[in-house]
Please model this.
Amino acid sequence: MDKNDKKKLPDENTWLWDAYELLISNIERAILPLSEYVQTFEAFAKENALNPDKYVKELDSVENPRSPAELRADIYENMKKEELIKQLIPESVNVSMFQINCKDIRNFYAGKFQQIVEKEIKLIHQKAKDETHKIAAKFQEITAKINKTPTNIDELTETKKFISEIGV
Model:
């Protein structure tokens, strides 16, 4: 639109149109650093793609089960990652004339690592519980075999041999 052609303008005050165009160009210039700032979050693509449920499920796979000690080490590693995220991403940042609140994305990424830690603790708990049930069942078997009254000398000898083998 030609601002000098006053018949085509809705208002003959061209200074207003000049101010409008100046404002638009300044806003467009102010927005450019925002696009550049968004690119800094590409460094966190791995955290963005991280799925806590899938991550923990892979740790407890049948093909490669992790021991509680390995899970414990991974828990500490994820706690360090959570703290690192909190250090790397500030709560807010000023870019051009904008103040950007990064708290939500920071908490989102840190929360993923926190969820992994919680799920791994539950996994260790479940593994310990399962192992306890196995030990209790084995103990009941041993107790039943030892407490069985022998009917002859062969059974008594067998029970004594069993006791010596288990190391009671």
Remarks:
- Residues 31 and 157 are 89 Å apart (CA to CA).
- The chain has two domains: 1-49, 50-135.
- The mean pLDDT is 86.
- The beta strands are 92-95, 98-101.
